Amino acid sequence: MLRLKFIIFCTLLFSKPSLGENSIIVQSTTSTYNSGFYNYILPIIKSEINITAHVVSVGTGAALKNASNCDGDVIIVHAKKRELDFVEKGFGVKRFDLMYNDFIIIGPKQNSAKILISDNPVEAFRKIYDTSSTFVSRGDDSGTHFKEMSIWSKAEINPTQFSGTWYREVGSGMGATLNVASGMGAYTISDRASWVNFHNKRDLKIIAEKDKLMFNQYGITMVNPLKCPNTKSHNAKKFINWLISPKGQNLIKNFRVNGQQLFFPNAN
Predict the structure, then answer these.
(1) Burial zone of 30 (CB within 10 Å; 0-12 exposed, 13-18 middle, 19+ buried)
(2) Beta strand 92-108 pairing with 188-191
(3) Which contacts qualify for 151-154: CB closer than 8 Å, 24 or more apart?
(4) Which of 6, 14, 28, 227: CA 20 to 30 A from 63?
(5) Tell me, what DSSP letter sits at residue 187?
(6) Are residue 177 and residue 261 in the same domain, yes or no?
(7) Element of type H or E holding 222
(8) For residue 66, what are the domain limits?
């Protein structure tokens, strides 16, 4: 009897809970979550196609890793090369462009690095380096972190060798990173949606923006059922097809925070 109870206990403890027949798990970048986008769009999707989406909000790298471990049905992230590599390796089925916005460089109002709003991102990062101004990095292998490191690379600077001095790596999401930057009066890079929805701006402002290098494309991909047999492919296809449909794209366009459009649909 005790043995039977122990087996039942272990089964309940380690078995994956059922999320319902009409549900999916979405592995998502934090920026779409932090912006309030899912609070807006998911109830509409539920009412339209009866699919309940459970969002796991992590950095892009973690989202792709989770999905490659078959923990998820759909991925919404923003690192196109890595997404295409995910599909090429057989973990995903056809990636679609979903929507875009842009990255921005945030910094203190006193702007110790003397960055001009007209400076491109590479020039801005070089000024931060030249003045040893404090820069807070997500340091979490997210899409935003990936973009940041690509800019440092173009500037021919390896900031990690200065980790713990003027370069601070927090290993956390966008909200936490902005909070640290706010508390330290530091520079950082953010997606615009997270910045608009961020409430603890204090002495921070947009320092540089609107450069083609700061383009921020979001993609959507279904996890491959051939790799992950438990993938709810029927639900995932319905979910993706609705978001890339004219109606879904129009509703993405209509999502606003403080009157500002945060995402621009561009499904192909």
Answers:
(1) buried
(2) antiparallel
(3) 151/121, 151/122, 151/125, 151/189, 151/213, 152/125, 154/121, 154/122, 154/213
(4) 14
(5) B
(6) no
(7) strand 215-223
(8) 23-100+216-265
Q: Are residues 77 and 146 in the same domain?
A: no
Can you point out the beta strands (E) in 6-130?
23-28, 52-57, 74-77, 92-108
How far is CA 176 from each of CA 27, 124, 138, rounded to the nearest angstrom?
Answer: 19, 22, 9
The encoded tokens of residue 254 equal 């209509």
Joined together, the tokens standing for residue 51 give 């699919």
Domain membership of residue 42 (yes or no) is: yes
Overall pTM > 0.85: yes
Kindly state whether residues 121 and 176 are assigned to the same domain: yes
Tokens of 185: 């009066």
Tens digit of each residue's pLDDT, the chain (268 residues): 434 333 333 333 333 444 678 999 999 999 899 899 999 999 999 999 999 999 999 999 999 999 999 999 999 999 999 999 999 999 999 999 999 999 999 999 999 999 999 999 999 999 999 999 999 999 999 999 999 999 999 999 999 999 999 999 999 989 999 999 999 999 999 999 999 999 889 899 999 999 999 999 999 999 999 999 999 999 999 999 999 999 999 999 999 998 999 999 999 7
